[in-house]
Amino acid sequence: MGCWRMRCWPACGRSWPGWTSSRGRWCWTWDAALEDFDIEFVDVSLGYDGGLVLKDISFKILEGSVAALVGPSGAGKTTITNLIARFWDVDSGEVRIGGKNAKGLRLDRLLSYTSMVFQEVILFNDTVLENIRLGRKDATDEEIIQAAKAARCHEFIEKLPQGYNTIIGERGAKLSAGERQRISIARAISKDAPIVILDEATVYVDPENEGLIQEAVNELTKGKTVLVIAHRLSTITATDQILVLDGGRIVERGRHTELLAMDGLYRRMWEAHQSARGWKF
């Protein structure tokens, strides 16, 4: 399906059944279920503030596989994840989900296909139960508890003053960083979306929580199409493909061993990572 610029219909946030607007263009949308959950970028470019942030990005993540984005700060990793969820739209090229242009998918349906877990966890001044239930509003209490067990947070929840009915404060202020991350993962497990976008969750937590969070992530990503922004390269050595970004472009791609053999940016990042792991005060 295509998009057309409609001068007689200003794109000011209004919508008509079967149509959606994007940067002044009106696009026909469809509501049919997708046949698969491959993610594909085709010659994608995006710019703002007078400069290009992404330049001619192309890659494909097959359904059920895991891909990792690595690169220096500002390389475009987060921008790519934002385009998948349509927080932003491309200037040129296409983002495709299940072979369909994401611009043509109804936004509510697109979001239902996607679970996103970021380092900055969004929690509300409500009970643990209701914070997890945000993943799927019609989930039963028992389903919430099962998601919490899978996310390795049932044990600490049971120790809270009112268990699952404990109010956790604004942004989960009454919980530790690791506990907040596991609540966020439980929410995503409850949602059970076929696509998972993960900003590596173990970067700023203590070693005790780190192992539990990694176990929770493993539960979350089973059988899903996964894209992870990796900050510690040791966590992605077994992924199906690694995309190395620099300056808004993909400069290298392949598996861990293939990238080490290229003797390029990834290898330099890996050597720096290994040196940092061996550093002791």
Keywords:
single chain; 281 residues; alpha/beta; Rossmann fold; six-stranded mixed sheet; four-stranded antiparallel sheet; 9 helices; globular; disordered N terminus
Can you give a write-up of this model?
With 281 residues, the chain is of the alpha/beta class. It has one domain (39-278): P-loop containing nucleotide triphosphate hydrolases (Rossmann fold, 3-Layer(aba) Sandwich). It contains 9 helices and 13 strands. It has a 6-stranded mixed sheet with strand order 9-10-11-6-12-13, with helices on both faces. A 4-stranded antiparallel sheet has the order 5-4-7-8, covered by helices on one side. The longest helix is centred in the middle third of the chain and has 15 residues, at 177-191. It starts with a strand and ends with a helix. 35% of the residues are buried.
Could you write a compact summary of the structure shown?
With 281 residues, this protein is of the alpha/beta class.
Map the helices and strands.
Layout: E1 3-5, E2 19-22, E3 25-28, E4 39-48, E5 51-61, E6 66-70, H1 77-84, E7 92-97, E8 100-101, H2 107-112, E9 114-117, H3 128-133, H4 141-150, H5 154-158, H6 177-191, E10 195-199, H7 207-221, E11 225-229, E12 241-246, E13 249-254, H8 256-262, H9 265-278
Helix pairs in contact: 4-6, 6-7
Question: Could you tell me how far the N terminus lies from the C terminus, measured between alpha carbons in angstroms?
Answer: 59 Å
Helix content: 25-40%
- The count of strands amounts to 13
CATH class, named Alpha Beta
Work out the helix count.
9
Question: CATH homologous superfamily?
Answer: P-loop containing nucleotide triphosphate hydrolases
Estimated structural class: alpha/beta
The average pLDDT score comes to 86
Q: Determine Rg (CA atoms, Å).
A: 20 Å
Label the CATH architecture.
3-Layer(aba) Sandwich
* Molecular shape: globular
Could you give a short account of the major beta sheet?
6 strands, mixed
**Beta-strand content estimate:** 25-35%
As for the number of domains, it is 1
Order of helices and strands: EEEEEEHEEHEHHHHEHEEEHH
